Amino acid sequence: MLENSKFCISFKFSGTQRHCPRQRPAARSCSAICCSLLYKLSLLVLLCVLGLLLLQNNSQLKTVEPLPTARIFCIISTFDFRHNSVAVHTKRTWSKKCDHHLFVSNDAHEEVEPAVFAHINDKWQQMRAQLEYVYKYHFDEGDWFLYINDDNYVMVENLRYMLHTYSPEELIYFGCKLRSETNQAYMYDRSGIVLSSAALSQFVLRAMPNQTICSPDPQGYAPYEELGRCLSNVNVLPGDSRDHLGYHRFLPFHMKDYFIGSLNYSLPHHKHFLDRSYYGLIDFKVPISKQLICTKMEYMPNIYNHYYLTYQVKIFGTPQRTLVNEIQKHPN
Ligand SMILES: *[C@@H]1O[C@H](CO)[C@@H](O)[C@H](O)[C@H]1NC(C)=O
Ligand SMILES: *[C@@H]1O[C@H](CO)[C@@H](O)[C@H](O)[C@H]1NC(C)=O
Q1: Is the distance from the beta carbon of residue 210 to the nearest atom of ligand 1 less than 6 Å?
Q2: Are residues 187 and 232 in the same domain?
Q3: 147 pairs with which residues across the strands?
Q4: I need a labelling partner for 280 at 20 to 30 A (CA). Which of 113, 133, 304, 329 fits?
Q5: What class of enzyme is it (predicted)?
Q6: Which residues line ligand 2 (CB under 6 A)?
Q7: What proportion of the chain, given as a percentage, has pLDDT over 90?
């Protein structure tokens, strides 16, 4: 009986039902029922196996950590003479990707809606006041605080991704890392600086009130060096923002400066960077990360091109490079 059924099935699969062995009517009808039952059963098993295979594929996606959810609070520094030519374009594009953002300026503006810090002329003193203000009134709105210029372009998702292996409780900050003449690490002012919430609170509560460890005096063109010194005095570490390949994620110059040859030592900004880069560079070339976080705009209206190309354009015929794939490939 069982032998027969198996025999039947093997024929059924090859689509030659009529080759079922002849039998007595009663036995035959029984065998036919079993045959068809087993046939259905085996189809079911087949479907189950297929389903399991599919599930297994999916579960690889499902067991991956969820996308990073750290809240990024963006503090975007601008000035009255840049509101219409620069800040509005940033306001209309990437600033929306921050969990919260606040422009800081020396004057009010209807669209940019900055917090106003009037009558402070020195950049360092502005920064101190602005960071203190954010600590006082917005501290609970972010896990990480990005202090950045109005003409930078930021891929906030990539920042969140870089930070997913760190805790906002760590005393750490990131950016484009340089080394001063006194061997003090600090972040370049032409790119963003991101402070953990612990670092921000240490800066405001411990560094700022103490003149020995953090100067209240004007710093001219070197406010970021002083920030580096203050932070190191309260044990905040300058983090490494490069990716797993050692490629750079915070770029202080326009994209074309990197893509057309190498940086140019006879340009003052490039020289400054090349002289002080914390990490060694070969032939003035900066390897650019595919997990790029920050770059600088040369011509502000181009920011709409960046924004569209980053978030809207679908490239057909290439596998989607999702954050999930990246996390699978490089679980830091
Ligand atoms: C300021 O910092 C210095 C160096 O850490 C320390 O010796 C001094 O006691 C601090 N001053 C105050 C008022 O906390
Ligand atoms: C570097 O900059 C200088 C000054 O602007 C310029 O004369 C020179 O052609 C540049 N070199 C390269 C290789 O772009």
Answers
A1: yes
A2: yes
A3: 75, 193
A4: 329
A5: transferase
A6: 264, 266-267
A7: 68
